[in-house]
Amino acid sequence: MSLPDAWSLAALAGATFLGASTQRISGVGFALVASPFLVALLGPFDGVLLVNVLGTVTALLVFVQVFRMVEYRRVLLMLGPAVLAVVPGSWVATHAPSAVLSVLIGGMVIAALAVSLTLKQLAPLQGRLGAAAAGFVSGFMNVTAGVGGPAVTAYALATRWRHAAFAASAQLYFFGVGLASLLAKHSLPQLDGPQWLACSIALAGGIILGNWLGPKIPTRASRAAVIVLAFTGAVLILVEGVVALV
To answer: What is the pTM of this model?
Structure first.
């Protein structure tokens, strides 16, 4: 193996490791942390596909550890509309200008997060309607922009969802949405054996690190990390769209 190939493999493993550990600690963040690096290494098509695959597997592996804390009713209220949104989202991602989508989605999520943080009670995001709306937007974002976490985070903030329960419940949600997105795309990333092996080892290592660090990090710090990650993802989507339009 040449030195450039070795560095590329190490970068692939490093991005996967960071994404998996972040997801285990905070409940969200695999795509936000890993996506920029994986897309830069593999290109937009295979990079986003790999984010979908690894994010789905990470969510499943974390879910089997925390399933007793999952609030299944709330997950189902979001997951149904999210899966439905994957269908029009996959069509829009293929036919509509991605720059316009990025601006609209990023702007809406930033607004929702900002209002959720400034108002104690946000009526539009309360109850079943709020869960359905958050799930639909999240599912649409997941298949069009590769990032479904910010919309779900906005819902969790608006409803004052207890962080430990949200972090656990989000794993089942992200597994379902990720699986639906992969089925809609009918494709897998074109990686060779060493790349798949490196990603698998790094993913397992990231979850192990997250298992160890998670209990040591205060709930307030974990929630703050979720908010930062959600805002970061929304801003990145918005900026990407504006730059493309300009």
So the answer is: 0.81
